[in-house]
Each structure stands twice: as C-alpha cells, then as structure tokens.
Sequence to fold (693 residues):
Amino acid sequence: MPTMTLIQAINTALDEEMSRDERVMLLGEDVGKRGGVFLATEGLQQKYGPDRVIDSPLSEAAIVGAAVGLAAHGMRPVAEIQFADYVFPGIDQLFSQAAKLRYRSGGQFTAPMVVRMPTGGGVKGGHHHSQSPEAHFAHTAGLKVVVVSTPYDAKGLLKAAIRNDDPVVFMEPKRLYRAIKEEVPSDDYLIPIGKAAVRREGRDISLVSYGGPMVETLRAAEEMAAAGVEPEVIDLRTVMPWDKETVLNSVAKTGRLLMISEAPRTASLASEVAATVSEELFDQLLAPPLRVTGFDTPYPLAQDKLYMPTVTRILNAAKRLLDY
Amino acid sequence: MVQEKIRFQPFSSEPIRLIDEQGHWNAPFEHGLPPEQLQRFYRDMLAARLLDEKLVILIRTGKTSFIAPHAGHEAAQVGIAHALQRGHDWLFPYYRDMGLVLAMGVPLVEIFGQTLGNAADPAKGRQMPSHPGSKSLNIFTVCSAIASHVPPAAGAAISMKLRRTQQVAVCTFGDGATSEGDWHAGVNFAAVQGAPAVFVCENNRYAISVNISKQTASENIAVKAQAYGIPGYYVDGLDVLASYFVMQEAIERARLGHGASLVELVVNRFGAHSSADDDSRYRSREELAAERQHDPLPRYQRFLEKQGLWDAQWANELRLEISKELEAALQAAQEAGEPDPLQMFDDVYAARPWHLEEQRRLVMDELQS
Ligand SMILES: Cc1ncc(C[n+]2csc(CCOP(=O)(O)OP(=O)(O)O)c2C)c(N)n1
Ligand SMILES: [Mg+2]
Fold:
C-alpha cells in the first residue's frame, strides 16, 4: 500500500475521480500549469488537458459562480480557492447561488460541486493565510462542510464529496499538508460525509475536535493516558451535518466534553456541539462542557503559535473538567 | 479650472515611452526637470533595487517569513511616488510596493520592522511582511486580499471631493487584480462620482503563474477604462520618466476636478511571485533571461549618462551610501525585539469588550505560569 501525505492523497483522489467520470473537472487560480500553489493539482492539466483543468482569472466570484453553472448544466466541478481566507469575494456565489439553488427552485436545479480550500493557521501566514471560516459555511443552509485531518480520510472524503449531490465545502488544514504520511489504499473507497471517527477509545473524558488541532488533541490525549486518564478522541471530519450520534454516545459514556477547534470561539462549531450536548445529556454530565478555541481576534502574525489551541491549553481545560 | 498641459493621449496602441532603450529622450516636449531631481529618481530606483536584494537575503537566511520581490517594478514605483504630493495625497498600495513606499518616505526601520514582524513595526507585527502602511504618510495599510482596497480608494476619493481637500487617492494593484469584482466596482464608482482617484496597474503580465493571456481578453489593461468612461493610459513602466509624467498628468487632472483615470504601467517581474513560489514551474528560464535584458535601471542610467549626470564613481558612492543606510536600519529594527504577545487583543475594537478581556486573561495567566 502506498504511503502518502495529505496533499498527495488529495491529488490522487482528484486524479481517480477525473479518470472515472469525464464530467469531473477542476478550476481555480494557478491550478493548471503550476499545479496549484500547494501542488494539489500537480500533473493533472498535463494529463487531462486545459479544458478539464482551467487556470481561471483571479476572481473567486467567477470560480465559485462558474462552478454553480457548470454543475447545474451537468458537469461535476471541483473549484479550488487558493486560501480559505480568499473565499470572501466568492461568498455571494457560494451563499446566494450554490447553497440555495436546490431550495429556491423547489428541487428542480441542483449544484453538485466541491469547493476545496486550504484552511487554518500555524504557518506564519498572518491575517489572510490562517483563518478557519467553517462556521460561516455551516451557518449557511444548503452547504455541506468537511474538514479533513488525515491522508486516508482526505482521499475517501474528497471522492465522496465529488459524488455528492449537494455543494460541499472541502477544507484542508494547510499545516497538515506535508506533516503526516500514512498508508492510503489504491482502491476506490469512499468515506461517508456526516460520519465522525473515533480516533481513540476511553471512558473518562471526550475530546472532540476536527482538522488541524487533531494533532494537538491526540498529543494531549497521549499525555493524559500516560498520567492514567483514559480519554476518548473523536474527529468530527464533517462539521455540517456533524455526527451528533457518535458525540452523544461518547459523552453519555464519559460524562465530560471538551471541544477543541482553532476557529474563533464565538458562534463556532465548538459552541454548537457544546450546546447540543448540554441540551441532550444534561443529567448525565459530570461537568459543564468546555471549549478550547482560537481567539475572537483577527489572526495575528506575531502570535502565530499562541493563537492556536496548544497541548497545554487542552490539558489545562481537561484538568478543569476532571477536577470538577 | 483648466489643466495646464495635456501631453498624453489615452488608449494609445503603443505604450507611452519617453526614454528609449538606448537612453535617448524621445518625446515631443522638454522634460524640464532639474538635474537634482533626475538624479533623485535614480537614487530611489537604486534604493528600491538594493532593498529588494536585502529582502532576498533576509528570506534566504531565514530571518523573515515572506517576501514579494519588486525587482523590475522600480521605475514604475518611483515614478508614482514622485508624482504624488507626499503626505498630502493618499496612497492605497498592494504587497509588491516596497520600492514605492520606500520612495514615499516610509522609514527603512519601519520597513524592516514590518518585514521581521517585530516591535519596530508600527502595525505591531500583525500582518505578513510586504504589508506596509503609514498613517502619517497617508499610506493605507496593505491588505492581502487582492483588489479589496480598490473600493476603499474610491470612497476616500469621494470624501476628498465632498470635503474639497484638493487631495488625490492613488491606488495600485497588479494585472491579476483587474479580474476581481471589487476592482470593477471600485473603478466604476469613482468614475461615476467624478472622484479624484488614479487607479494604477503595475502590469507584470503574471498573476503568480497565470499569464495575462488567461487573465483578460482585452488587448491591454488600459482599455478597460473605456467601459467606465474614464481615460486609460498605456505606459512603458520600465521608463521612470514616462511613469512619472503620465502619473503627474492623471493626478493633476483628478486634483482639478476632472475625475478618475486608469494608468497601466507595463513592468517586468524579475523574481518569482514570492518567496513561497517556484517560477521555474511555469516560466522558462529563456523567457526570464530575455526580460532581464529590459531592466529599468540601466536604461535610465544611459539616459543620465547622456545628460552628464551619471558616472561610475558617483553611482558606486551612492550604492555604498544606500547599503550603509539599509544595514543600519536593519540593525536597528532587529534590536527592537519581539512585540508584547498580549498586543494580540488590542485594536480589535476601540476598547476591549468583556470576552476579549477574558481571553486576554487566559493568555496572561499562561505566560505567567
Ligand atoms: C482575493 C484573493 N485571491 C487570491 C489571492 C492569492 N494571490 C496572491 S497574489 C496573487 C496574484 C496576483 O497577481 P497580480 O494582481 O498580477 O499582482 P502581482 O503579484 O503580479 O504583482 C494571488 C492569486 C489573494 N491574495 N487574494
Ligand atoms: Mg501581475
């Protein structure tokens, strides 16, 4: 079985889907000749030609909006936004067009498309190469939102997203692109959208995260285990619709929820999961759900590392829950 | 009011050029500039080039995290800087304008502070390198999001008109930026308001890897002005005096109340897009070598030589003087040290609300333990 980085798994998924289905095509800034600024689409224009891998003009509105039209007309476009931070000029197309097309046409028109984007901080990217805007998307009815954290998942989830009949925002933590390598099967497997993964089983506390901070969450879990605590670790993988069943089952067992996310705290997915757990499991909780998140500031360059959930911050919050 | 001299025609089919490759003054009017000013242009272009070389060293030695080289843009940037009334007019620059902001008078220590993201940065290390700004010089702090500063430039220009301040808003951007919706929205608004704005495209024919032929089907950028009912000037941006005189005319036009215009300065990008880019993936070395033959500095040097305003000794002394200034400023910036980490929570709002107080306290406790 080949071992791959996250970026290689993305490239492989795109390649396999393009060879499987002629309707699958790519568009975005620098995706063709250069193969994308992170090389996610490397080699694909050479292989499939400039009609199926389009170097678009520098306009996210054009990229996302054209994907809507391509999809409505029968193609399966995969749009690349160079950085999640640059989706905003394309937001009207994503929110007003892609998200609501099915609803406003009473189900007559649909936009089965994927909008891929590198997300998250920790790469000295300052304001506009570090943000985690998934809550904006999750807040917009009609969009599905995936945030991957492993090469294996990236391949299976991207293939599932391309075959999905709804618009899917597919977020790739850029700091993980080359950080991890793992075995990725060559076969055509899919990972269902909407299913979380239990990364580690335990009975004392549920650590629920997704995307980039899965790294710090698993590291914190190891430290806790070494100190005799048994944490359960859940990777949401899809944040809209998120896997309520898996989370509730876990917290029903442990009685403690710690949500970890690097997105800003207020009105976040971390808040959403914590609120749901409070509503549905109030009488089984041993402590109030806690959140470790990014701060409610723009993402600062100079405090690049301090901004994100650190292992220490996760351990401190877990201790508060366990000592409650 | 009537504009004094109208020298340039918009929408020319060939780029406006005043100094030819051999350094001959090739224009139907006298430049009329004093020798000191002609030499000042050279000094500023050389300083811009040497700053670029210094930034390349900082990235190679791991002292900074990012640069967007401006080598090849010097003549355009120096021409723009000298056409503005510095400290009076407003500049809305983009990330490749380090040579421009230097010529506008941003102190080198601030430039290096911003590059290092440390306490010498007046913007407190908040943004990536190549994102300068200066309130005192009316330089609107750079935002990474391409073309997002174009509508604000239009807005500032509308305010200048309403408040009769006799100022002009000059907004620079690359060729790729002209594809963004914000670009069109901003140019159109300024045009329809007759606002004193000059939109300036530093056209290096690449947006990262994407060649201009994939960016626009227009024959050049300047013609886009036609659709908005304003003049568009197509200019050789490797010619510092062409850049200067056309910018000056567009700025004067705006100042006298005749409205907005678009200036396209055609330049070369000698480096990769940025320190995160490998341009050999999409641009042949032969193409680049051919572009390097068209360097704005030697062309202007030939012009000065013909006027008896350039010799090797003078240029060497100048180079030495600038290098010393760069070194001293870098040293001073490096000594400033790291910014206070708790500044992360400042400037989000005019005053910190309760939730930011809470978050700040969390970090303060962590830092103390
Ligand atoms: C809205 C937005 N989308 C994408 C990017 C990523 N990006 C940074 S620079 C660049 C190319 C810009 O090219 P151009 O406007 O020609 O300016 P140049 O860099 O050539 O000077 C791109 C796509 C961005 N900064 N902002
Ligand atoms: Mg360009």
